């Protein structure tokens, strides 16, 4: 057998380097192949993303250009409107001045005022929308040709639809003998109480201590601006099929490449009949500012095919407009085809180079591995004799080391049973000498001596078979297991006034009962040693309860004050102990953890706990053993 193993080892030395070289080279080639394939795919994806990003930037620039054009129109038109109404007021002021000068010496101020009122009240401009009004320093309306019913009424405290006191501004112009623009929201004539934004200009007329003014509703001018903007937008074209579309926030098309869409609701658009939510999403984007939207357009302009489209949307909230444009995915794909083709050709050339380099690498490494195999075989033969000489000595040393460790473990486990035997026998001798030995005490002590002696014998067998795979399992109930365990240690625990409080559910296991008893004794003895440091009230609590998922928890805790935090990571290490060398070896908890984890397939955990018993607060160490009932009963 030994010679056969040596031959196997020599075969490994001969062929393993070669196999390793082949495997390693093959792995490297595959790694390079897939890694570079991944790199090329990522590069393709990156190029595609760049193309999409580039097209996104283009359509965003086109929309922003339209947006800025409209904003400039709005800005210029508002200034033009201001210039217009200012010049109108200056004209009216000049007319009023000439009338006053002409009739100053022949008519009263009241008569002159009436002449001015009639003259200015008859003037209309801007296609009949424009008119002049006059107010005095008290806030009285002197002239309003569109609604003469308000003439003579005081509006000093009147506020517009947004709470602005516009007549106070007119009064201030009169008091300060100046002029100014104003903006407010006034009822539009010939409407059912509709309120519109109005820009006005007031100028002080000193001869009659009043203000002459005029104004224009901004939305009337906006319609003209919007018409100009839509004419400009409808003429925009870019790329192969780019155009600008415009909808209002009610979903009506205002501008589109297909003229038959204009003036219709988006719900009537066959291009989007299967994706109506796209327009709703666009409207949401527009109302909140700007952004991109992806959807399917049923018919690309100039074709009858459905194409994925990415659009950029910009909202004009003051007009309630959605301005947008987009690009089609197939246009981007056609641009990418040539680029991807070049990348594929580059990748194919790279793969060929990898294969050539890989084959050369394998050949070189095979040659090197052959020489390494020969070198290792020679070294093996040189050391073989030396290894044979030392084999017997090493085997004997190993047996002695194992025996020494086993004797140490047995000695540790024997301390308690021997103490029990000594205590029981000494008690019988003492009571016999004093003449008070009773049959009950004699039989009880004899029983404990016999039980402890059997446990000593059983301990030898248990330790002898501890690492053997041929241990025998058996069925047992945990209640009986604890009765046996506590029976072995009860005499010493009672002598030390240690009270054991039990709450044990009777759970059946199929496992190594004696090893579990050894583990429990180790934990209980550990608690006992710590409790002896207390002067009174020494408690150990044992709880056994079945938990979810067919598991059982065995919890043993005491009121000895707990384990120091710095010891938690070491308590299950071999030969670690906080006691004096003469009091402990540090093997108990180590053996306990070995038994629970390796032989009972369980878990043991330790922690410090605080709890209340008999209305008193205590702190101590708690050991929890978790066992799987289902596994143990299989």
Automatic annotation (TrEMBL):
CDD domains in the cross-refs: HisKA, PDC2_MCP_like
Keywords: Cell membrane, Kinase, Membrane, Phosphoprotein, Transferase, Transmembrane, Transmembrane helix
InterPro entries assigned: Double_Cache_2, HATPase_C_sf, HATPase_dom, His_kinase_dom, HisK_dim/P_dom, HisK_dim/P_sf, sCache_2, Sig_transdc_His_kin-like_C
A single cellular component GO annotation: plasma membrane
Protein location: Cell membrane
Membrane topology: Multi-pass membrane protein
Name used for this protein in its record: histidine kinase
Organism in which the protein naturally occurs: Arcobacter aquimarinus
């Amino acid at each position: 057998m030994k010679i056969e193993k040596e031959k196997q080892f020599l075969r490994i030395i001969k062929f393993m380097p070669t196999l390793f070289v082949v495997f390693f080279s093959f792995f490297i080639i595959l790694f390079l192949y897939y890694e570079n394939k991944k790199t090329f795919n990522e590069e393709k994806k990156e190029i595609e993303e760049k193309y999409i990003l580039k097209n996104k930037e283009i359509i965003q620039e086109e929309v922003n250009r339209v947006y800025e054009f409209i904003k400039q129109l709005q800005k210029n038109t508002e200034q033009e409107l201001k210039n217009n109404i200012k010049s109108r007021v200056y004209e009216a002021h000049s007319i009023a001045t000439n009338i006053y000068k002409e009739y100053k010496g022949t008519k009263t101020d009241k008569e002159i005022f009436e002449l001015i009122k009639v003259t200015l009240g008859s003037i209309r401009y801007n296609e009949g929308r424009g008119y002049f009004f006059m107010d005095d320093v008290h806030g009285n309306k002197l002239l309003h040709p569109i609604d003469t019913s308000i003439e003579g009424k005081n509006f000093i405290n009147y506020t517009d639809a947004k709470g602005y006191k516009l007549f106070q501004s007119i009064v201030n112009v009169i008091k300060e003998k100046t002029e100014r623009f104003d903006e407010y929201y006034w009822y539009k004539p010939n409407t059912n109480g509709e309120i519109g934004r109005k820009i006005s200009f007031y100028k002080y007329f000193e001869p009659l201590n009043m203000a002459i003014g005029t104004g224009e509703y901004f939305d009337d001018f906006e319609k003209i601006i919007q018409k100009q903007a839509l004419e400009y937008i409808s003429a925009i074209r870019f790329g192969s099929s780019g155009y600008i579309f415009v909808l209002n926030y009610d979903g009506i098309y205002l501008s589109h490449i297909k003229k038959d869409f204009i003036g219709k609701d988006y719900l009537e658009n066959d291009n989007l009949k299967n994706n109506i939510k796209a327009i709703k999403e666009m409207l949401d984007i527009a109302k909140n500012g700007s952004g991109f939207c992806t959807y399917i357009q049923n018919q690309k302009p100039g074709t009858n095919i459905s194409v994925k489209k990415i659009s950029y949307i910009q909202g004009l909230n003051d007009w309630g407009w959605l301005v947008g444009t987009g690009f089609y995915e197939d246009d981007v794909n056609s641009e990418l085809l040539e680029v991807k083709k070049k990348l594929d050709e580059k990748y194919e050339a790279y793969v060929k180079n990898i294969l050539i380099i890989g084959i050369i690498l394998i050949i070189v490494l095979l040659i090197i591995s052959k020489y390494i195999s020969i070198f290792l075989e020679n070294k093996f033969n040189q050391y073989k004799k030396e290894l044979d000489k030392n084999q017997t000595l090493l085997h004997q040393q190993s047996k002695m080391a194992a025996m020494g460790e086993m004797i140490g473990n047995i000695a540790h486990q024997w301390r308690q049973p021997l103490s029990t035997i000594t205590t029981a026998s000494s008690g019988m001798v003492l009571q016999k000498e004093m003449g008070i030995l009773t049959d009950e005490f004699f039989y009880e002590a004899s029983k404990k001596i016999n039980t402890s002696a059997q446990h000593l014998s059983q301990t030898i067998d248990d330790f002898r078979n501890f690492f053997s795979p041929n241990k025998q399992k058996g069925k047992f109930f945990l209640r009986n297991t604890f009765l046996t365990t506590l029976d072995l240690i009860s005499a010493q625990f009672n002598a030390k006034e240690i009270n054991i409080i039990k709450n044990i559910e009777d759970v059946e296991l199929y496992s190594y009962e004696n090893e579990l008893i050894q583990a429990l004794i180790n934990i209980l003895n550990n608690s006992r040693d710590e409790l002896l440091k207390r002067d009174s009230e020494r408690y150990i609590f044992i709880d056994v309860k079945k938990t979810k998922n067919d598991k059982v928890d065995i919890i043993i805790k005491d009121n000895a004050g707990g384990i120091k935090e710095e010891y938690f990571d070491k308590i299950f290490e071999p030969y670690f102990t906080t006691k004096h060398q003469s009091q402990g070896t540090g093997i108990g908890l180590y053996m306990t953890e070995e038994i629970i984890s390796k032989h009972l397939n369980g878990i043991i955990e330790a922690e410090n706990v605080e709890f209340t018993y008999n209305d008193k607060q205590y702190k101590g160490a708690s050991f929890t053993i978790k066992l799987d009932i289902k596994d143990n009963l299989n």
